[in-house]
Here is the input.
Amino acid sequence: MKKNFWVVCIIICMLLGCQSPSHPKEVSNAPALSNQEKQKPFNPSNFHNEQLKKLSIPFDQFNAVSEWLNDETVLYIVNDGTGSVIHTFDLISGETDVFYKSEELIMSVEANKTYEMFLVRSAVSDTEGKLRVLDDKGEELVEWKFDNSIDIVFSWSPFSGQQLVVSSFKEDWSYDSFLLDVRNESMVKKDVTDPFVQWFPNEEIAYIDWNHDMPSLEAPLYAENIETNEKRELKESVVMFHTYDNLLLTVGSVDDNGIASYSFSRFSEPEEIQSYEAPLLTLYSNYFIPYYDLVENSKMFYSFESNRAGNADGYIDGFQFISFDSTTGQKKVLAKDMENKPLKCSPNGIYCLYGYQLEQLLIPTTMKTVKLVELS
Here is the structure.
């Protein structure tokens, strides 16, 4: 039963957040920009006054747009036949440059909270993974190898910005978890009850304590001190949680009609500061959580929301796209009929990457969607 549970969890994780490892190569015809060139100040109105430049890439060469480098520059991945290359692309000028090259297949790039460090996940082979941390110039700071690994899940600390918690899955879906620290390049093995762990303040990690022998739709949320192993219950019943800098998001308290509470609270105060309700769809042994993102600077939360509760299998009633101000509690429906796809907003929240390969640009204030990548 435990093996089946993790298989289902990994499949759901792949559906909800993983990027497709396609087979790219070289990139656009846009002029190159030197890493040493001084960065110009960002003006949000530029986008509305100038035509957005697009990447033109052969279909069999494009992997994915993976991350934001800053408010107007994205990082995208291509494969060159012998490995992968991460490029920068300026949305306004169309300028591109090589950010990092690897002889391995790069799967994803994930920024820390300040966008000063970038975690690069790559596959050395089918059973060996590697994580590297780069600075914002593409220079390698540290790397870690994971043997007998078919999949890796990880989470940056939203507090220090220099620590990671990582779980590496083996072929039998057992896993090992580690605490990584960029500052001293350390890698410490940590026994955890659940592999999907996130950082909490004060040297704690948090996880949902699922009963793997008797699967349930909700379970308690716990925090555990990484030094003393002391545990404490944070919430009695949740479906999902996400830690941000000074903000905890939990989804839970699902009623008989399938309506859940999206709750926001501060780590220093157990009581919620804001919340709203939304219908959830059910999967085999848990709830389906639509894609979402939170803009740290403004505390504006964006999410897709199903138009009704029910079974996710065969659901065809579409999703609406909403914004929720976690400071004021104001919720707005920005679009009533959209596809539930991955979402990653820029640091200032003016633009959001959208799509299974983050190949589109969504502007929440106007709900305009722009195609970033032209495949040939």
About this structure: Residues 17 and 342 are 7 Å apart (CA to CA). The first strand starts at residue 55 and ends at 57. The chain has a mean pLDDT of 88.
